Amino acid sequence: MLTGGSGLYIQAVCEGMSDMPDVQSGFRTTLYTELEHHGLAVLLEELRLKDPQYYREVDHNNPQRIVRALEVCRATGMPFSSFRIKNENKREYEIIKIGLDRERDELFERIDQRMDEMLGRGLVEEAERMYRYRHHNALKTVGYTEIFDFMNGVHDWNETVRLLKRNSRRYAKRQLTWFRKDPDFAWFHPNDFDLILSHVHKQMDQ
Question: Is there a single domain that holds both residue 103 and residue 79?
Answer without folding.
Answer: no
